[in-house]
Amino acid sequence: MRHIAFFFRFFIWFSLRNMKKHLGRALTVLLGIALGAAVFTSVRISIHAALDSFTRSMDVIAGSADRVLVQPGGRVPEEWVPKLIQLSVVQKASPVLTTYVRLADKKSEPFLLIGVDPIMDRSFRKWQISELTEEVAESWIELLKRPYTLIIGKSLAEKYACRRGDQLTIEHTRQTAFFNIVGILSTGGLATAEGGMIALTDIATFQEFTKLHGWVDRIDLKLSPKATNRDLEIIQRILPDNFHLGAPSAAKESGRSLIRAYQLNLSILSFASLFVGMFLVYSLVALNAASRRHELAILRASGASPYLLFMVFLAEGALFGVIGWLTALPISTLLVKYLLKGVSQTISILFVKVQADTLSLSPWEVILSFSITVFTSSVSALQPAWEAMQVSPNEALEISHHGMQYKKSPYKLAMVGIGCLFLVVPLSLLPKVLNMPLPGYVAILLLFGGFSLFAPWGLSQMGKALSPTLGRFAGIPAYLAGRYVRDSGTRTAVSVGALITAVALFASLVIMIYSFRSTVELWADQTVSGDLFVTTKMGEINRFRYPIPRAVVDGLEEFKNQVDIVPSRRYFLTYNNFPYEFELLDIDVFLRHGDFVWLKGDPDEIRTLLKQGKGMVISEVFSNRTGLT
């Protein structure tokens, strides 16, 4: 215990006093670490909030069902509800329909409309009216008595200033209709789904509104406590082949896996901000170690062990990490408000609908952020701490107070850096590990590390080669600058390494955005070459489950002698729990005006087979994720 107390007293006397003396340097490094930690923490918290919101929504919508009956890519006939209830292993069943709708106002946001049987569904999902009066509390019966009535979530009511008795004009793919509000959901249970942006109606009203008479999205089942796998197999055998009896968590896990992949990618990108901060810590600690070399020699001559000096400078780096992380907390509270909205919108557009309304601070995220910040700062101080450890006591006798001058060749570091750079391409081509592109992330880390290790030797050679030329054309100041670059060693290399990292990130983002634009343009020119596109309102958010009405199709067919019509139908399916889109279209007409970007196979042969209906084509992403070729 005495040794620990002595170390802290010595650290305060030796390091903190020096930081106070050079406060500007220390504050600059702390600001860099704080900004990096704030970006990393804010990104992690934002995605965690979106993931938590999605999970909570899926859980409350799934309710307490044991199994769910669905038809992949379609709907289930309502007649299966009484058939399933007759089975001894099934205790209760509840049909469910869901879709996204919006108010007729063009500026309104979509919200989730849920259609259930209020009586059959009570044992599956918990929800109640917010008002406590007996008359209002029983207003859910109005859903059964009166068509086109709604009970809406509290967030939806607050957003559009609605209350009980108001009338809403709701717009859907199939039609627009007036609905009367008969109640507001209390905050809890089903009301927490979609951040409260939901509305509940009777299933008969839902079917009439969406023109899905006799059909439901799914049937939730509660099984007998004594149900066995054999009983489930018996149920599956009496079902049609295109029906699937699965766990209610299947859709949730599929969506969570997509969000987690996005979380990993953003975490790696945000970690780069901490990586740049490492150079700042290294630069300051190395400067302190170099400028106080004579003091270190005196300490060594006085009996201080090399390990004491090593731990002092290592603790200096760790201290920057701790204070930088604490400084990052208020910055994170400002950043996360803006990031949450952007992250939620991106996830909703690319993967699944997310309505993140609240932030949930996970202890794991706090510990992870703190640990990574302190770890990166400590690692940054390793090399300067090691250099301080090598100081000889004999240097205390040097009159110049600059220490014994010796040079360590950066050649070995350069060779290690070149080795890292050579490993980048092979690693980037390796397949994913644990369903994550870990080799690619390691390749990025080696790319940064390789250039950083190569920088001292490269700068030395550059300064040696360019000094005479600079002196000849730009005079003595340029010559001295070239010599400084040659002799400065790792001090200049730190700045160059930080600049390389920053420029590499910027260039990567520019290339990625430009490549994405080029791909979209190529796709638009070759695949989406049309003059007029007709689709349903809110088709994308509802996963195109509602096809264009027959009357519209018949109207378009009247022009088939004047224009080429390419009908298309899209289904959202899963293959081994991997979600994908299955698209059907008139390939013969499509290939007259467009084409695909082919990666494998003979395009002419493939086109012929497609026109004959003998096979299908898959995307590169689908092939990589499933192993199908």
Note the main attributes of this structure.
alpha+beta; 57% helix; two-stranded antiparallel ribbon; 4 domains; 21 helices; 629 residues
Overall tally of domains: 4
Between the first and last Cα atoms, what is the distance in angstroms? 64 Å
| Tally of helical runs | 21
Name the shape in a single word: elongated
Give the number of DSSP strands.
Answer: 13
| Helix/strand/pairing category | alpha+beta
Largest sheet: 6 strands, mixed, barrel
What is the residue-averaged pLDDT?
A: 82
Strands ordered across the widest β-sheet: 3-4-8-5-7-6
In angstroms, what is the radius of gyration? 33 Å
Low-confidence stretches: none
Q: What percentage of amino acids are in beta strands?
A: 5-15%
Helix content: 55-70%
General description of the model:
The chain folds into four domains: about 1-65 and about 260-395, no CATH class; about 70-245, no CATH class; about 405-520, no CATH class; about 550-625, no CATH class. Helix content is about 55%, strand content about 10%. With about 625 residues, it is an alpha+beta fold. A six-stranded mixed barrel has the order 3-4-8-5-7-6. Helix 9 runs antiparallel to helix 11. The mean pLDDT is about 80. It starts with a helix and ends with a helix.
Could you write a compact summary of the structure shown?
The protein has 629 residues and is an alpha+beta fold. It is built from 21 helices and 13 strands. It has four domains: 1-63 and 259-394, no CATH class; 72-247, no CATH class; 407-520, no CATH class; 550-626, no CATH class.
